[in-house]
Structure prediction request, 170 residues.
Amino acid sequence: MSNPQPIIRKARFNDGPAIFKRIKAHPNELVPRPISDIMLNIDRFLVAEANGEIVGTAAWSVLPELDTTKNPSVEIQSVSVREDYQKAGLGRRLVEAALARVAELKPDQVIVLTFTPPFFAKLGFVPVSKEKLMYKLYKGCINCTKYDSPYTCPEEAMALDFRNWKGNAS
Ligand SMILES: CC(C)(COP(=O)(O)OP(=O)(O)OC[C@H]1O[C@@H](n2cnc3c(N)ncnc32)[C@H](O)[C@@H]1OP(=O)(O)O)[C@@H](O)C(=O)NCCC(=O)NCCS
Prediction:
């Protein structure tokens, strides 16, 4: 029997533990997040729910830039689809739903650091040099225990120009 089509909705406090588990299920692809961080940012999470279970997540974070304080970037984070729901368009639906929420903030650009560049390329993201994302690298990488420098980390930096974003980016 095939899986039911999950619904995508805003996360709620009581989704916290399921989100924590979902992110931890991808130790090589996703940065694990403490439950406290998830709860403090629960209003920046979307979840995909099927049969009462959380089968996908996507989140975003705001990255201020000191020299252009009026134009912070937004980072897409914690994109996860449970294995048995992958390759059926759910990852795309989650990121597009997150981008629609982010669009309300009118950022100039949306960025991602990822081990899965082809997935984000399908959504319109293009590679950028890590040097251009120092504010993100500072915030996200400063406490990293996996790599000694963002430049030795194999995660790739990608960006989506949001100034003319009209919705379906691909
Ligand atoms: C990456 C991930 C979110 C993709 O979810 P998914 O539901 O399988 O993706 P979709 O089915 O929506 O795929 C959308 C498009 O991206 C492509 N795609 C998805 N994963 C891909 C991959 N690993 N490599 C190449 N292309 C990929 C699909 O073929 C599809 O292309 P199409 O629109 O031409 O058909 C999922 O594999 C996952 O949770 N991986 C582990 C965590 C992770 O890597 N998260 C992203 C890092 S920030």
